[in-house]
Automatic annotation (TrEMBL):
Keywords: Cytoplasm. It is found in: Cytoplasm. The keyword Cytoplasm applies. It holds the Pfam family Usp. The keyword Cytoplasm applies. This is Universal stress protein.
Amino acid sequence: MINIVLPVDFGDKTEQLVDGAVKFAKQLNGRIFLIHVAPSDIGFAIGDMGYQYFPEVEANEIREELVQLNKIEQRIIAHDVDCEHLLKQGIAKDTILEYARAKNADYIVMGSHGRSGIYDVFIGSLTKGLTKDSHVPVLVLPIHD
């Protein structure tokens, strides 16, 4: 069976990315290892007193992201594709590559969102970093409006 790592960010194009990854997995008799990487500083805010940490904010955000990840996993399974998921805090590129190695991935599937501004710079750099440092092929699916 082919192992496919699918990083998701819960953006407005995630549904299209998941559809493309499911189609790809079905063609290859693959299973999907879904991953969402939350930033390590999710509970920090800056205010009058400098940086402050709010653990309840972090816990709530992680809880909400886990609910979203579970929904995506169930959607993939409903298409008769094996799936499991991981939500982990860290640096996106390093965490995704570590997960791909741990799952003996044959592919990493990413989406090209075609956006502009800072979001495009971030996603572009993540995709570039993954394609540069990955030990397996990175399939970039075109995601359009």
